[in-house]
Amino acid sequence: MTATIPASEHPGRVEGTLMQVDHPELRGKVAVVTGAGRGMGARFSAALARRGVHVVGADIDESLMGEAASAITREHEGVDGAGDVVATGVDVRDREAQQRVAELARDRFGRLDLWINNAGVFPEAPAIEVPVSQMQATLSINVEGVLYGAQAAASVMEPGGSIINMASVAAVRVRRGRSAYCSSKAAVAHLTECLAVELGDLGVRVNAIAPGFVDTEMTRWVQDDPQALAKALDSIPLHRLGSPEEIVGPMLFLASDSARYVTGHILAVDGGSRHV
């Protein structure tokens, strides 16, 4: 896996080009990506479609998802063998809604090979002030949403299927003011291991990616604060933020046959920050 990543003038940031990696065995496969209307979900969908994977992108904002799917389709107009991208709405807290997404993928494309549980929220509040509503919503979206997605995927997948959950370095590192988020991602990490054991009986692999500070909308709060950015960079052995493309590469690996004997693994993509 190689990538050319030129330096940016912004301290601690890189501008990631498309990963120069291909997994030919992915072509013709079918994926569902939740939270695909923006951010990493949209980037995952684009990367998969570029490599010939048909994608059902699902987001709670169906209009936004439609715009993202159209943008990806336009982006790949000149790409030979690019996969289709279909947009649909979903509230990941709704188990039946997730089941309908899985059935849409199967009915539209005849199969389901990959499911990425990407949808999530990133709330903030001091630990002693976290309201009941915030905690309930965070656990419902970030944890129950992963479980319901995995259940839906497993009900449709044949042996060889792969489920990828989005955990976080926050599962093992404390982020002040993010206790609801950190605890939910710790739950996602352990849930991934539980699902890997039980879904292994069906021949389905379950893994998770645990990003650190990545240059996305979710880290805008630290990038816009010079002091916070300096502190964050000091906690990362590579002394820079990750680029979204540096999360795409590990996703493609976990989705591919290169990882066909990998399950129950939490793959940290954090520049080493979990060790500091």
From TrEMBL:
Membrane-spanning parts: none
Gene3D superfamilies attached to this UniProt entry: NAD(P)-binding Rossmann-like Domain
Pfam family, one: adh_short_C2
InterPro entries: NAD(P)-bd_dom_sf (IPR036291), Sc_DH/Rdtase_CS (IPR020904), SDR_fam (IPR002347)
Alphabetically ordered keywords of this record: Oxidoreductase
Family the UniProt entry places it in: Belongs to the short-chain dehydrogenases/reductases (SDR) family.
Entry protein name: SDR family oxidoreductase
Source taxonomy: Bacteria, Bacillati, Actinomycetota, Actinomycetes, Propionibacteriales
